[in-house]
């Protein structure tokens, strides 16, 4: 309630109102059937004229709190529960019936594949069942790894209904906290038929991006989420959602069915640099449980290629570059003795890790998953 009470006091002193929601006309809370393993922690009074949106909260700065309103960079992420997040934005209830789940309340570096699988399976159950009455799912998340979970959901929840991932760059207690507006826009997008068939979305700072392309590009500033080459797909004007084009799917996108997957294999990212010692990759394999590697790299150092080739005989090695933007094109024919690693295509390092995990977990061929869509276009 941090933001709400301060905002309401301010508006009252100005003789204005904060779009009060008249709940008297609503039916009592409608029972919502929780997917297995989830506990409903928030449910708004039900209005059959409004769409149903489920919010799954995982923590991050959007749920962060600091000791002072001037503290926008030093705070505890994941301090505020889903109920307080929703209470801070009364207008959510003017546009939707809200059901809230507290999936986790952690900084996003602590989000793991167990949590991602839980969200994906719950979202599929909530949105994609034949008798589903839910229009969209919103996931609140820390921004540091938000693009990874958003990409994961883009590849694993695919029945056309919107999944919107949202965070904030300033904690809930800060002056000009961006969380409440971001949450309102995320719910607006999740509830809108305009968002259908666009894959998972990231809405932040008045913009809408495809989760397949969007990534965090700045550590501190509000306009951090960008899709460097293709750009945003939509935005908000006066909180009205618009899209630039009719729905489209990223050309190289692969999807995965995780309904029966209980765990994902471990894939690590190794970071290349001048004087890079490729024996780090062998050291990673010695950990024992590594089933694949992503190499964020210039083209190795002296002697590196021989080591990389040895490692690639044991586990799939996907190669991108450190810049994280651009295409690592596959060779025309795969694989040759000089081409033992897998080209990541347009998928950046952290997203390549997710895609390789999903390919390995579902029995998909990693090279085909990454290279085939591109090869068929580049060398047709
Ligand atoms: C986090 O990723 O959990 C902290 C940073 C943020 O949410 O902006």
TrEMBL record:
<dbReference type="InterPro" id="IPR027474">
    <property type="entry name" value="L-asparaginase_N"/>
</dbReference>
<dbReference type="InterPro" id="IPR004550">
    <property type="entry name" value="AsnASE_II"/>
</dbReference>
<dbReference type="InterPro" id="IPR020827">
    <property type="entry name" value="Asparaginase/glutaminase_AS1"/>
</dbReference>
<dbReference type="InterPro" id="IPR006034">
    <property type="entry name" value="Asparaginase/glutaminase-like"/>
</dbReference>
<dbReference type="Pfam" id="PF00710">
    <property type="entry name" value="Asparaginase"/>
</dbReference>
<dbReference type="InterPro" id="IPR036152">
    <property type="entry name" value="Asp/glu_Ase-like_sf"/>
</dbReference>
<protein>
    <recommendedName>
        <fullName>asparaginase</fullName>
        <ecNumber>3.5.1.1</ecNumber>
    </recommendedName>
</protein>
<keyword id="KW-0732">Signal</keyword>
<feature type="binding site">
    <location>
        <position position="108"/>
    </location>
    <ligand>
        <name>substrate</name>
    </ligand>
</feature>
<feature type="active site">
    <location>
        <position position="61"/>
    </location>
</feature>
<dbReference type="InterPro" id="IPR027475">
    <property type="entry name" value="Asparaginase/glutaminase_AS2"/>
</dbReference>
<feature type="active site">
    <location>
        <position position="143"/>
    </location>
</feature>
<dbReference type="InterPro" id="IPR037152">
    <property type="entry name" value="L-asparaginase_N_sf"/>
</dbReference>
<feature type="signal peptide">
    <location>
        <begin position="1"/>
        <end position="18"/>
    </location>
</feature>
<comment type="similarity">
    <text>Belongs to the asparaginase 1 family.</text>
</comment>
<dbReference type="GO" id="GO:0004067">
    <property type="term" value="F:asparaginase activity"/>
</dbReference>
<feature type="binding site">
    <location>
        <begin position="143"/>
        <end position="144"/>
    </location>
    <ligand>
        <name>substrate</name>
    </ligand>
</feature>
<feature type="domain" description="L-asparaginase N-terminal">
    <location>
        <begin position="52"/>
        <end position="247"/>
    </location>
</feature>
<dbReference type="InterPro" id="IPR027473">
    <property type="entry name" value="L-asparaginase_C"/>
</dbReference>
<feature type="domain" description="Asparaginase/glutaminase C-terminal">
    <location>
        <begin position="266"/>
        <end position="368"/>
    </location>
</feature>
<dbReference type="Pfam" id="PF17763">
    <property type="entry name" value="Asparaginase_C"/>
</dbReference>
<dbReference type="GO" id="GO:0006530">
    <property type="term" value="P:L-asparagine catabolic process"/>
</dbReference>
<dbReference type="InterPro" id="IPR040919">
    <property type="entry name" value="Asparaginase_C"/>
</dbReference>
<keyword id="KW-0378">Hydrolase</keyword>
<feature type="active site" description="O-isoaspartyl threonine intermediate">
    <location>
        <position position="61"/>
    </location>
</feature>
């Amino acid at each position: 309630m941090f933001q709400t009470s301060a905002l309401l006091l301010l508006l009252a002193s100005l003789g204005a109102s904060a779009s009060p929601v008249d709940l008297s006309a609503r039916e009592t809370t409608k029972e919502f059937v929780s997917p297995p393993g989830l506990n409903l922690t928030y449910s708004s009074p039900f209005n059959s004229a409004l769409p149903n949106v489920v919010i799954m909260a995982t923590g991050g700065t959007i749920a962060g709190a600091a000791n002072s309103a001037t503290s926008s960079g030093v705070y505890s992420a994941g301090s505020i529960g889903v109920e307080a997040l929703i209470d801070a934005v009364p207008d959510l209830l003017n546009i939707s019936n809200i059901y809230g789940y507290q999936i986790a309340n952690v900084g996003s570096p602590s989000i793991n594949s167990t949590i991602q699988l839980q969200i994906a399976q719950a979202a599929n159950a909530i949105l994609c069942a034949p008798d589903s009455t839910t229009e969209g799912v919103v996931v609140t998340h820390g921004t540091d790894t938000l693009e990874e979970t958003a990409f994961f959901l883009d590849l694993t929840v695919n029945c056309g209904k919107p999944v919107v991932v949202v965070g904030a760059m300033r904690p809930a207690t800060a002056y000009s906290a961006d969380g409440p507006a971001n949450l309102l826009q995320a719910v607006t997008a999740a509830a809108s038929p305009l968002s259908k068939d666009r894959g998972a979305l990231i809405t932040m700072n008045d913009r809408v991006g495809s989760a397949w392309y969007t990534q965090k590009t700045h550590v501190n500033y509000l306009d951090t989420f960008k899709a460097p080459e293709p750009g945003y797909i939509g935005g908000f004007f006066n909180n009205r959602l618009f899209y630039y084009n009719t729905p489209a799917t990223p050309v190289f996108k692969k999807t995965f069915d995780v309904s029966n997957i209980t765990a994902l294999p471990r894939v690590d990212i190794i970071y290349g640099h001048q004087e890079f010692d490729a024996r780090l990759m062998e050291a990673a394999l010695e950990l024992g449980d590594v089933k694949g590697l992503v190499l964020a790299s210039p083209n190795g150092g002296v002697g590196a290629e021989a080591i990389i080739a040895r490692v690639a005989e044991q586990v799939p090695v996907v190669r991108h570059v450190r810049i994280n933007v651009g295409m690592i094109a596959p060779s025309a024919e795969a694989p040759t003795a000089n081409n033992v690693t897998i080209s990541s295509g347009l998928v950046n390092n952290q997203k390549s890790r997710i895609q390789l995990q999903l390919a390995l977990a579902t029995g998909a061929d990693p090279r085909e998953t990454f290279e085939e869509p591109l090869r068929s276009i580049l060398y047709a």
